[in-house]
């Protein structure tokens, strides 16, 4: 299970990005090489010879997420894969993925999937880990316009429909 599925997850979530940008490949390769150790922006920037600000900017521009959100999505996906393919309980999975404790993993699940570990395990009976990640992403993207539509700037209404369409088209 070591490193399994990380590249596939990122390729399915960000297909256009990984095909044309060498820096995106460098970030992905650094994450894959470091797994299961959690990289932070400082370590990544040091490894790649870039500034932290440049890494932050790349992640926002390329992956449409912060580096922390990107790493969280990867770790939740790996935890889901372990739930699907092993008989380990949540505590053992958390330890294998270098979480400090099970509650830290549960917090990541709630942030990424909108549910806890036990509910995610039930959902795995009908879906793959990748499908769960994508479903959760689409729910978040669809909820954003209803929250932001009332925002106006002078007489100009921001184009949230365009934001939604571009986010949904990026799939993950």
Write the layout of secondary structure elements.
Elements: H1 6-13, H2 15-20, H3 22-34, H4 41-48, H5 52-63, H6 67-85, H7 90-96, H8 102-113, H9 117-123, H10 129-148, E1 152-153, E2 156-157, H11 160-169
Which descriptors apply to this entry?
172 residues; mainly alpha; two-stranded antiparallel sheet; 2% strand; disordered C terminus
Tell me the number of helical segments per DSSP (H or I, 4 or more residues long): 11
Outline the low-pLDDT stretches.
141-171
Helix content: over 70%
Tell me, rounded to a whole number, the average pLDDT: 77
Spatial strand order of the main sheet: 1-2
- The total count of strands amounts to 2
What would you call the shape? Answer: globular
Decide which structural class fits the backbone. Answer: mainly alpha
Cα-atom Rg, whole angstroms?
17 Å
Largest sheet: 2 strands, antiparallel
The percent range for strand residues is under 5%
Order of helices and strands: HHHHHHHHHHEEH
Distance between the termini: 22 Å
Can you put this structure into words, describing what you see?
- By secondary structure, this protein is mostly helical.
- β1 and β2 form a beta hairpin.
- The protein has a domain of 60 residues.
- It has eleven helices and two strands; from the N terminus they run ααααααααααββα.
- 71% of the residues lie in helices and 2% in strands.
- A two-stranded antiparallel sheet has the order 1-2.
- The C terminus is likely disordered.
């Amino acid at each position: 299970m070591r490193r399994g599925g990380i590249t596939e997850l990122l390729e399915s979530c960000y297909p256009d990005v990984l095909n044309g940008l060498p820096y995106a490949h460098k970030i992905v390769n650094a994450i894959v090489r470091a797994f299961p150790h959690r990289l932070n922006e400082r370590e990544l920037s040091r490894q790649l010879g870039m500034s932290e600000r440049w890494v932050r900017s790349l992640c926002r521009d390329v992956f449409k997420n912060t580096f922390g959100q990107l790493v969280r999505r990867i770790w939740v996906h790996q935890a889901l894969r372990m739930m699907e393919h092993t008989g380990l309980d949540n505590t053992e999975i958390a330890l294998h993925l270098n979480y400090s404790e099970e509650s830290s993993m549960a917090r990541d699940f709630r942030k990424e999937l909108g549910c806890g570990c036990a509910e995610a395990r039930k959902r795995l009976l009908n879906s793959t880990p990748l499908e769960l990640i994508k479903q959760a992403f689409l729910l978040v993207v669809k909820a954003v316009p209803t929250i932001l539509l009332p925002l106006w700037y002078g007489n100009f209404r921001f184009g949230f429909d365009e934001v939604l369409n571009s986010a949904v088209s990026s799939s993950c």
